[in-house]
Amino acid sequence: MVESKSVSLRGKNILGLEYFSPDEIELVLQTAKEMKNIISRDIKKVPALRGKAIVNLFYEPSTRTRSSFELAGKYLGADVINITAGSSSIVKGESLRDTLLTVEDMGVDAIVMRHKAEGAPEYATKVVKAAIVNAGDGAHGHPSQGLLDLFTIRQYKGGFKGLKCAIIGDILHSRVARSDIWGMRKMGIEVHLAGPRTLIPRFLFEEKGIFIHDRIEDAIENADVINVLRIQLERQKSGLFPSTREYARIFGLNEKRLTLAKKDVLVMHPGPMNKGWEISPKVAYSSNSAIQEQVRNGVAVRMAILTLILTGGKSNEITA
Q1: Rounded to two decimals, what is the model's pTM?
Q2: For residue 142, is pLDDT > 70?
């Protein structure tokens, strides 16, 4: 198991990659590598978190994130409960504070939380003593996705220094984009952005070390990695771009545009995909695509996060 005398996440809240140091990111990635060995076994159970209780508290729909956190906790031997807004007292008008206090009174050790409001997980840290893991708060951040994206890039590219990554699409509404930008820059990846000007936050134009392009072709030229973002129609107001057909024509990643990147370019997408809009089906399922591998890596990274915050990652009961 990865151990460090100077770096530890034990007892810490996971709120955003802007709060991580490069050494802390490295600790998660190294731990996730060992966790991936565990989930490839026939018997995936280890007792690292035996006796620990984890609640997944999701105020927004999720398939990949919630399921992978649930599996991560169960593979590590923890007791895991899922609470969703539509099937709890939240629909009766219970406040976030009261829900958090109710969950804490049940004796939980960690709360994995997704909420539509930016800052909700940080607020939760002021209400309860249980460790809080941000599983997505509005358009602010999605740290576990950012970490699994870095883990996937290292798996295919061997490292980070000198790589060029193009992040394409709806950056304005994307918590994934923000976490990727924070994490990639800390690890030495050159970040290029492209999308409709209406979908790029103004503050990014003032950030040093970020290259913003009006044309997708300029962003992906000679890119080592392309991360395509989902068009988040459920968060958008009308008028941000003419139509999905027009968006696909100007900003969609297709086979022709892919040839502008390096031959071994790695294509990623946080999912779910709007195939035919932001990415063509042929690119999504091409030999360059790591989209399905991202799903597999998500479980390993989330196992690492839970282990590191609840035990410090030093349990002798974890073997790889």
Answers
A1: 0.93
A2: yes
Structure tokens given for 310: 């609840």
| The pLDDT of residue 89 | 73
Domain annotation for the chain: domains and CATH numbers: 17-142+296-311 (3.40.50.1370), 144-291 (3.40.50.1370)
pLDDT, average across residues 64-73: 97
Q: Which of 262, 269, 301 is nearest to 285 (CA)?
A: 269
Catalytic residue positions?
64-65, 92, 114, 142
Q: Are 76 and 307 in contact (CB under 8 A)?
A: yes
163: left (phi over 0), alpha (psi -120 to 50) or beta: beta
Give the residue numbers of the binding site for L-aspartate: 92, 175, 230
> Binding site membership: which residues?
64-65, 92, 114, 142, 145, 175, 230, 271-272
Q: Shortest CA distance to 96 belongs to which of 131, 133, 126?
A: 126
Q: Is 303 left (phi over 0), alpha (psi -120 to 50) or beta?
A: alpha
Q: Which of 219, 171, 150 lies closest to 191, judged by CA?
A: 219
d(CA 214, CA 196): 7
What would the pLDDT profile of 159-203 be if each residue is shown by its tens digit? 999 999 999 999 999 999 999 999 999 999 999 999 999 899 989
* Rounded Cα gap, residues 228 and 81, in angstroms: 32
pLDDT at 86: 74
DSSP for 140-193, please give it. TB-HHHHHHHHHHHHHHHS--TT-EEEEES--TT-HHHHHHHHHHHHTT-EEEE
pLDDT the model gives residue 320: 43
